[in-house]
Amino acid sequence: NAGVTQTPKFQVLKTGQSMTLQCAQDMNHEYMSWYRQDPGMGLRLIHYSVGAGITDQGEVPNGYNVSRSTTEDFPLRLLSAAPSQTSVYFCASSYFQGFSEAFFGQGTRLTVV
Amino acid sequence: ILNVEQSPQSLHVQEGDSTNFTCSFPSSNFYALHWYRWETAKSPEALFVMTLNGDEKKKGRISATLNTKEGYSYLYIKGSQPEDSATYLCAFMGGDYKLSFGAGTTVTVRA
Fold first, then answer.
1. pLDDT for A15-49, tens place per residue?
2. C-beta atoms of B98 and A31 within 8 A
């Protein structure tokens, strides 16, 4: 019963480095999304996907790339890390309907120094 | 950027008391309204997904109502218990299928 699996759980990057946050789900969900959580700001949508091969920007997409080559995986790429990207990142998935609840991964705490 | 607002930002409740708080969202292009419970050091977990104006949902001592015409939803906790302490998030989905979250209401129940 894996659900939504995010890796890594913790990461420290130097400014300018790149990295990929991994997200995988085993529930055959069409809809997947990435959020960042900052104090006092709740969850802000970075990118989302309504199915394999389809992605779109959310509220705060700058500095991040995504792709969706399979239904199961939705990696988030930081192209050139900046201190402003220090945050907790959550991946979520659901069936492609607003009526379906989202299931969240355990989160990745990223620090950019 | 959608305006999903929750109030109050935080509240303290005595054990056994009931409480409620608000989520406001755009009243146009409504698709669904979600409520999540988020405990410290865990991930958000769904409480309710509401889609119809006038919807009322209940899970144990927690219930929610929805008014899509005026753009608000209430979450109620009856007879608060210490285990109800958490941040409660609402999220709005419009016709663009983006699920946008409010900043949350943090509830602390004092024994």
1. 999 999 999 999 999 999 999 999 888 899 999 99
2. no
